Structures are given as C-alpha cells and as structure tokens.
Amino acid sequence: MALPIPSKSARALVTGASQGIGLAIARDLARFGHNLILVARREEILKDIAADLENKHGVIVEVRAVDLADQDQRAELIEEIKDREINIIINSAGIASFGPFKDQDWNYESKQFALNATAVFELTHAVLGGMLERGTGAICNVGSAAGNVPIPNNATYVLTKAGVNAFTEALHYELRGTGVSCTLLAPGPVREAVVQAEDMSIVDKVVPGFLWTTYESCSAETLQALSKNRRRVVPGPLGKAMNTVSSIAPTAVLSPVMGWVYKKMG
Predict the structure, then answer these.
(1) Beta strands of 92-174 (E only): which ranges?
(2) Is 157 annotated in the active site?
(3) CB distance 40 to 23 below 8 Å
(4) Residue 128 in 3-state DSSP?
(5) Whole-angstrom Cα distance, residue 203 to residue 100?
(6) What percent of the chain has pLDDT over 90?
(7) Tell me: the pLDDT tens digits for 141-174?
(8) How far, in Å, are 24, 142, 217, 218, 236 from residue 214 at the CA level?
(9) DSSP state string for 29-79
(10) How distant is the alpha carbon of residue 145 from its chain centre?
(11) Cα–Cα separations (whole angstroms), residue 21 to 32, 78, 179, 220, 227
C-alpha cells in the first residue's frame, strides 16, 4: 500500500509542524509533491516554512496558527478539516514534563494531556470518515517508546503516549482492507543532527550522542513505514532498544531504573 498520490485538491495535514519531527515530515511530504496544511502555534514561523517549501517544491502550503491544547481553537480547526480532502494526517504535536506528578504545574499537565492525547483522538476522527469514503488515506500518530512501560517522574507523558500507542495500533487493525493505512511512530530520543553545547537540554546531556536519531532519518523511516502500512515504526538505536527491553524486562525492575533517570531530568 503506497502513500496517497498527491493531488491539487488533497492536503496532508501535519501538526507540530514548526519544528522537530513534524517539520522534517512536512519537508519530505512537500518534496514528494504533497500540498500541505501546517499546524502549530507560531504563525510567523509557519509562514516562513510555507514560503520556503512553496518556492522549493511548487506545492501549496496553508498554515493554521492553532494551540491544539485549547479546546476552542482545536474545535475550530476540526470544523474546517472535517469537510476538507485530507488524505494524510501526521499527528506530531506534543510536550512532556519530568518529575513527581504531585509537584507538576496542573495547568501544564492538563495542556499536555489535551495536546498529546485529546488532539490526536479528535483530529484522527475528524479526517477518518472522508478517508474511508474515498478509499484512500494515511494516518500517522506520534506516540513514544516511553509509552510501553510505566515511568515514574514522567507519569502524565506516559499516560498520553501509552494511550496514543494503543489507540493507533487498534485503528491499524480496524482499517485493514479499507485503503487507509495507520501507523504508530514510537521514537526514542530524536534531535537535530548537530546541537550546540549552549543549546543542549537536560535530556541532551543525559543521553549519549550516539543513541540519538535525527529528525530527518526519523521522517524517512516513518514515511517508508506508512507507505507499507506497518503497524509500528521505532526509529533510532535507543528507541529500538527501549522497545525491545520493555517487551521482555519485568516492570518491577525496569520502571524504578527509568524513574531514577527521569527524576534527574526533572
């Protein structure tokens, strides 16, 4: 099963498109000739990206400055796209927090749940009906290798990503034979190919450089997996290791160790 063929009327919708995985996938989709709708909060950055992609690849790129954690803004986008020809959706937007759950800022945790889980749930539903009617479409939801195992000091994030993981894989099996592919992207650490010392986050400092994968390689693996309707793609060496270890190591052993690491990140 190949990715849907680019057409003048269709759009590939990418959330979290202003940076990271979302931006890398948007660039590759534009290079393949797909017209785009880019969604993120920062309109000026999206406009710059859109202009660059249109100039390089001759595609149409629409931008939507939307905070997907905001219910009203999310509802407005959903009202629009449910009647649009969206043939690809990449649900990439997401945030994380580290440290004891009881100590976290509740407003941030609530936004994290809305962005990481509710937005994925609602946007997928909004475009799925049209895809099924047309008999073609591709859905990619960004979960995480972290969603495979309970991780202390990362509780809200693993709650959302475990849900996205299971939701997406369930849809993968539901949609067999419909012409609509559904793939879970469950990465481990992903970052720019080169990160300057002054720009390194705590995660950059904790995780050795050779274990990371780049946004560009993550995008390439993801689109290849989506075109083959694979259930799950886990790019990068640490992601693959986490995926394997989490399937065989006892939770009682693995969770405390990972929780100690994530506490350091907090």
Answers:
(1) 137-142
(2) yes
(3) no
(4) helix
(5) 17
(6) 72
(7) 999 888 778 888 899 999 999 999 999 999 999 9
(8) 9, 15, 5, 6, 8
(9) HHHTT--EEEEES-HHHHHHHHHHHHHHH---EEEEE--TTSHHHHHHHHH
(10) 12
(11) 17, 22, 25, 10, 17
How many of the other CB atoms lie within 10 Å of CB of 197?
7
Q: Which two tokens stand for residue 99?
A: 């440290």
Burial class (CB in 10 A: 0-12, 13-18, 19+), 87: buried
Catalytic site residue from 157, 173, 215, 262: 157
Burial class (CB in 10 A: 0-12, 13-18, 19+), 210: exposed
Helix-strand-coil percent breakdown of the chain, rounded to 5? 55, 15, 30
Please state, in angstroms and rounded to a whole number, the distance separating the CA atoms of residues 259 and 94.
Answer: 20
Tell which phi-psi region holds residue 20, choosing left (phi > 0), alpha (psi between -120 and 50) or beta: left
For residue 176, give every residue at least 6 positions away whose Cβ sits within 8 Å of its Cβ, in sequence order, or none.
none
Sign of the dihedral through C-alpha 102, 108, 111, 116:
negative
Instruction: Kindly list the structural domains of the chain, giving each domain's residue range(s) and its CATH number in brackets, ordered by start.
Output: 11-265 (3.40.50.720)
Per the DSSP assignment, residues forming a β-bridge with 190 are 213
Question: How much is the pTM?
Answer: 0.86
For the record, the structure tokens of 113 come out as 């749940």
SS3 232: strand
Contact 98, 85 (CB under 8 A): no
User: 88 by DSSP, 3-state: which?
Assistant: strand
In one-letter notation, the amino acid at residue 199 is: D
Chain-wide mean pLDDT for the chain? Answer: 88
